[in-house]
Specification:
Oligomer: single chain
CATH class: Alpha Beta
Shape: globular
Mean pLDDT: 96
Order of helices and strands: EHEHHHEHHEHEEEH
Helix content: 25-40%
C-alpha cells in the first residue's frame, strides 16, 4: 500500500466560506492524509455560519486527528517534517498580511513558516473583502515567493464588493497536485 501524501489544512476566519471549505477538505481526504490546523480565532468563534465546536468536530472526523489550534502545537511541523504541503483555506486578508510580513502569531502562520522552512509547498486559497485594496500588495509579494502557490481566484461580487476576491475552491485539489510538482495552476486569475 502506497503511503499517502501528508497535507496540512489550515483554516482562518473567513467564516462565510466554512461550509464550502469543509466539503473541499472531505474531498482532499480521499487522496491525502489530512493534518488539520485552525487559527485560534477560527477555532474559538461561533458565528451565524456555525459553532466553533461543530467545525472542530467535523475537521477531526474528516482527518482522524486532533485539530492544531495553538502556536506551540504547530511548531513541530518544521523540525519533525510532518507535512509534504500545506493549504491555507480560507486565507483571510489578515493572514495574507502576516505571511507577507513574516509575522508568526497564530497556529496557521507558524504552520506556514514551519512548512516553508522545509522547502515544501504552501498553497493559499484567498477569501478576503480587501484583496484588491489593502491586501493586494501582500498577494503580490507572496506570488513572488518560492514555494508559494495560489488556488485560482476571482472577484466574487464586482458591483457590490469591488475589492473582494475569493478563490475557486473547486480548483483546490488541482492546485495542490500542481504545487507538489513545483507548478502554479493556470490560469491563476479567473
Amino acid at each position: 500500500m502506497e503511503k499517502k501524501i501528508r497535507l496540512g489544512i489550515a483554516m482562518t476566519g473567513s467564516f462565510c466560506t466554512f461550509a464550502k471549505v469543509l466539503e473541499v477538505i472531505e474531498q482532499l481526504a480521499e487522496e491525502y492524509d489530512i493534518f488539520p490546523i485552525m487559527s485560534e480565532f477560527a477555532a474559538a468563534t461561533d458565528t451565524r455560519f456555525g459553532k466553533a465546536e461543530e467545525h472542530l468536530a467535523r475537521l477531526e472526523r474528516i482527518s482522524g486527528k486532533k485539530v492544531i489550534t495553538h502556536i506551540a502545537a504547530a511548531e513541530p511541523i518544521g523540525p519533525k517534517k510532518l507535512l509534504d504541503a500545506l493549504v491555507i483555506i480560507p486565507c483571510t486578508g489578515n493572514t495574507l498580511g502576516k505571511l507577507a510580513g513574516g509575522i508568526t502569531d497564530t497556529a496557521v502562520t507558524m504552520a506556514a513558516k514551519a512548512n516553508l522552512r522545509n522547502g515544501k509547498p504552501l498553497i493559499i486559497a484567498v477569501s478576503s473583502n480587501d484583496s484588491l485594496s489593502a491586501s493586494a500588495k501582500n498577494i503580490g509579494q507572496l506570488m513572488n515567493c518560492k514555494n508559494v502557490f495560489f488556488v485560482p481566484l476571482r472577484q466574487d461580487d464586482p458591483v457590490k464588493k469591488p475589492t473582494s476576491v475569493v478563490c475557486n475552491f473547486s480548483k483546490t485539489a488541482e492546485t495542490v497536485a500542481a504545487a507538489l510538482q513545483g507548478q502554479q495552476l493556470q490560469p491563476m486569475l479567473l
